[in-house]
Design brief:
The protein has 253 residues and is α/β, with parallel strands linked by helices. It has one domain: Vaccinia Virus protein VP39 (Rossmann fold, 3-Layer(aba) Sandwich), CATH 3.40.50. Helix content is 28%, strand content 28%. It has 7 helices and 11 strands. The strands form 2 sheets. Strands 3, 4, 5, 6, 7, 8, 9, 10 and 11 form a 9-stranded mixed beta sheet that branches. Strands 1-2 form a two-stranded antiparallel ribbon. Helix 3 links the parallel strand 4 and strand 5. It is globular, with a radius of gyration of 17 Å. The two termini are 32 Å apart.
Amino acid sequence: MAEISFIRDDESLESLYGGRLHILQKKKGYRYTIDSILLAHFVEPKKGERILELGAGSGVISLLLAFRNPGVRVTGVEIQAELADMAGRSISMNGLEGRVQIMAGDVRNAADFLEARSQDVAVFNPPYRKRGSGKVNPGREKALARHEIAGTITDFLRAASRALEPGGRVCLIYPCSRMVEAIHRMRAEKMEPKRLRMVHSRPGSRGDFILVEGMKGGGEELSVLPPLFVYQEGERYSEELEALFRNLSGAAG
């Protein structure tokens, strides 16, 4: 079936890895950002693991994880049925129906549709802004992605904890300004932080985000990785980001 048959009038097609991976996005409304790319590359899945993505949006993280790790199976959960449908069409377009599935669901009601202890890894890029803080985007897709309207970090962690096997891992990205809350909530849900990396715009700048991995029921021991810089001098990407984007574009490097 031709790729064009998968695309709706209000959607655009993003190609990664030299055209070997295709992802549908809304022309207006929710579109994935570098946060999702960084999180997908922070996860270190093992062959055969079952991965759960909560708040999948366009499905970019699920698709990247499945494409880069042929031995894993991925389940994405998205509250907005239209986005879940779009992500499902991206899965079909890439021939990944056997290893990636997207379901419409609300993380706050995870017990209704997520089987307990059925996953090895949970991944999510939750809304960063508290409900009632800042200007809420008038578009529903962007509003739900940015503000805690349909789920807080605690809701995401509880859904992850329910779905994970003992010893399972959770990976997330969150603003540095709310890092204390993220760590506190992880420990409250018995998801002990084990691996952490700070994301900075450039050397010398304050941290913007944290990438953190926790273990369900894990003991206290945290490994802090070297910082990740997005830019170097001026507006040039750092060497690490340039290498990442070269890989995404399919160029040799």
